[in-house]
Amino acid sequence: MEDLEIIKFLKKELTGEEEAVMLKWIEESVENRRRYVELKNTWVLSGMIPDAGEIIARNKGIKTLHIGSSSPGNPILSLLKYAAVVITTIGLTLCLYHYMSGHGGGSDICYHTVSAPLGQATDIILADGSKVTLNSGTVLTYPANYSKKNRCVALEGEAFFEVISDHDNPFTVTSLGIEIVARGTSFNVDAYSDDCDIDVTLVDGSVDIYSNVGKSLVRLNPGENAMVNIESMDIQVSRVDTKFFTSWKRGMITFSNRRLEDIAKDLERWYSVEILFLNDETKDIRYSGTILKHKPVDQVLEVLRLTSDFQFNIEVINNRLSRIIIKE
């Protein structure tokens, strides 16, 4: 499938028959879905309006800046609450070429990426005043021309969004193929790439969620959580205590009837360790409770061990805790 046809599909310029062919192509393979999502993310982030022409994306290279300590003249650092943040400026990674009225006129669009390192959280204030808090191991990408009228970001990981109200200019989060559209809202998105589902939890305001092919899935009300399966786009909506989904902002991991394997994923991200299970039965042990993130990981596991039947060993490599093995 040509990239040009995918862009036309995103812009709703295909006929009904052509749309059916496109949908069939997207569902044919993981590779097709990945290419579709890549182009869709680029199209959303570019802030292009429907008549802006055709968009073709290609990768050219990445320049990475490791930011250690702040300097008075650095405007980027004024956006960050924590110093230990890696900012990746993607200069030519996604260059969008658009053609209007049959004439070529290429232009480069620069993207910024902010990463929260493992074991840390990061606060960002965007140009429109909206605030984003990134959880450990999370990456947020947004165009350099992000503004009050172009409010599009891409997310991989978990983040809490506090969006400045603007009903004329929606705020769009693209993550693992789905779109979350808000106008003045506080909500949490949990979308790590190694999970099967995306969790969207609304604290206040409202958000609309769209599938990877632009289908409207649901509009959430405050206090609701939507769990979207990445592959099937099946969605489950339920009333929840939002504190369970936002407690990580307060330095806690709160869970209810959650599998040990899923808790271990959070511990890996926060403590920057690898956790291995020697048997599947141990993975399915379920817990309810709260973990304080500032406690050492061995103390956290010891508390979990006392209420169930498993053991764990800690491996230290180069004087650093690197791997935890959980067994019966």
Q: Describe it for me?
A:
The protein contains 7 helices and 22 strands. It is of the alpha+beta class and 328 residues long. The strands form 4 sheets. It has a 15-stranded mixed beta sheet that branches. Strands 19-22-21 form a 3-stranded mixed beta sheet. Strands 3-4 form a two-stranded antiparallel ribbon. A hairpin with a 2-residue loop joins strand 21 and strand 22. The model is unreliable at 46-107 (pLDDT under 50).
Short description:
The protein has 328 residues and is an alpha+beta fold.
Share of residues in helices: 10-25%
Under the CATH scheme, which class of the largest domain? Mainly Beta
Give a quick account of the main beta sheet: strands, pairing sense, barrel closure: 15 strands, mixed
What is the count of helical runs?
7
- Work out the number of β strands: 22
The fraction of residues in strands falls at: 35-45%
Which residues form runs of ≥5 with pLDDT under 50? 46-107
Termini gap: 50 Å
- Quickly give the CATH architecture of the largest domain: Sandwich
Shape: globular
- CATH fold category name of the largest domain: Jelly Rolls
How many domains would you count in the coordinates?
Answer: 3
Mean pLDDT: 77
Radius of gyration: 21 Å
Structural class: alpha+beta
Please provide the ordered H/E string of secondary-structure elements.
HHHEEEEEEEEEEEEEEEEEHEHEHEHEE
